C-alpha cells in the first residue's frame, strides 16, 4: 500500500467563483464537504493498493454497467482521510475516503454509496451544476449592480444616515438569494442521485438497505449539529426528509432483505483490516483486532502491524501463516515481498512477488514492486527482466512517477543512457516538475538518433508548454 498524488491543478477563479466551487463540491458528497477544494487528486493524500482497488472495481463495475457508463473507464480513488465521505468531481473518478471504507461494516453499505455517486455521474449533474452556477452567478452580479445603483441613487437623494446599512443589505441580498437558489438545486440533485442509486442496485440484484442504513446513520449524526442551521443553507435535503424518501423508494426493491455473499463479506473485512494495519497506531489495531480474535482479517491486520512496527522475523512468521491458510492469495504474497523489500532483502522478495503477479494478472502496483525488487539487486539480468514489466506498467498508468523512476534505474544498470534519461524525464513530467523534465529530455534527445521514437518522445517533453500555474521548477 502506498500514498500517491495527483497531477492536475485547478485554475483559480474570482473569490465568488471559488466560494461557489466549494459549495458545488459539497453537493457531491455522501455526508460532508471534501477535505480539499483543489482539483481532484492534486494535493490530496491518495492511497494506492492493488487488493483494495480490485475490490472496489468489483463493487462498482456492475453499477456502472447498468448505468451505461462502462465505456467511460471510471475509477475509484481512495483518499487517506478518516471522515466518512465520498464524492465525484468529474465524470471519470469517484473519490472515497478511507473513513467511509472503514466505517462501512458490509459491502452493501459502501456499494450503496457508490451507487449514489454513480447517480450523479449518470445524471450529468456536474455539467448541469456548472451551468447552474453560471446562471446563478450572472443573476447575482446583475442584482448586485442594481443594488449598487440603488445605493448611489439613494445617496444622491440624500437618503440620510441609514445609507450604509441599506447599501450593505442591497449588496448582500443578491448573494444570499443566489446561494439559496444554488443549494435548492443541489438538494434536488441529491434526491435524484438517491433514486438513481436505488434503481442501479435493483437492476444488479442488490439490496438498497445498506445505502439506506448508511445515510440514516449519517443523518442521525447530523441532527444535533444541523438543528440550529437555516435549512436552505444545507447542501443536502433535511436529513429526516431525505432518509424518509430514500426508505420509501428502497423498500420497494425485491432485494431489500438480500445479504452480501460470505466470500464478498470476507474480502470486505480483509480490506478494513488492511487499512487499519497500515494507517492506525499499533495499540489501536490491537484493540480493534485483539489476540483473542483468530479470524483471517484480524491475523492480517496484526501481521501488517508486525512488519511495520516489530521485528521482521515475527512479521514473516505471521505472514507465512497467512500464505499457508490461502496459498493462492496474491496479496499475502505481495505483503511478504513488500516486508522483505523494505527490510533490505530484495533478492528474497523476488520469488513471492513473481508468484503474486502470476496470481493477480494486470496488477500494475504489484508488477512495479516486483520490478523494484529486481532493480534493487543491482544485477543486469534482473534489470533486463524488470524493463518489460515496467514498460507495460507505465503504459497502463502513464501518470505514475514511480514506474518511470524504476525504469530509469533499470535502463541505467543496462548502460542504456538514452532510455534512462528519457524515463527519468517522464518521471519528472508525471510529478509536474516540468523544468527538470525538459532538461532531462533535452539530454535524452542528444543520445537518440534524430527522428527515432525515443527522440520524438523526448522532443514532446521539451516542447511541452505547461499551464502558467502548473510549473513547479
Task: Walk me through this protein's architecture.
By secondary structure, the chain is mainly α. The protein has a domain at 1-282. The chain is built from 20 helices and 5 strands. It has helices spanning 15-27, 50-66, 98-103, 107-122, 125-156, 163-203, 209-226, 239-250, 262-279, 282-288, 296-309, 312-325, 330-342, 346-359, 364-376, 380-396, 401-414, 417-431, 434-447, 453-462; strands spanning 2-4, 46-48, 75-79, 86-88, 93-97. It has a 5-stranded mixed beta sheet with strand order 1-2-3-5-4.
Unreliable stretches covering 5 or more consecutive residues: 3-40
Question: What string, H for helix and E for strand, traces the elements in order?
Answer: EHEHEEEHHHHHHHHHHHHHHHHHH
| Shape verdict | globular
Structural class: mainly alpha
Distance between the termini: 29 Å
Level of helix content? 55-70%
Strand content: under 5%
Main sheet: which strands, in order across? 1-2-3-5-4
Can you summarize the main beta sheet? Answer: 5 strands, mixed
Tally of alpha and pi helices: 20
Mean pLDDT: 82
- Give the strand tally: 5
Rg over alpha carbons: 26 Å
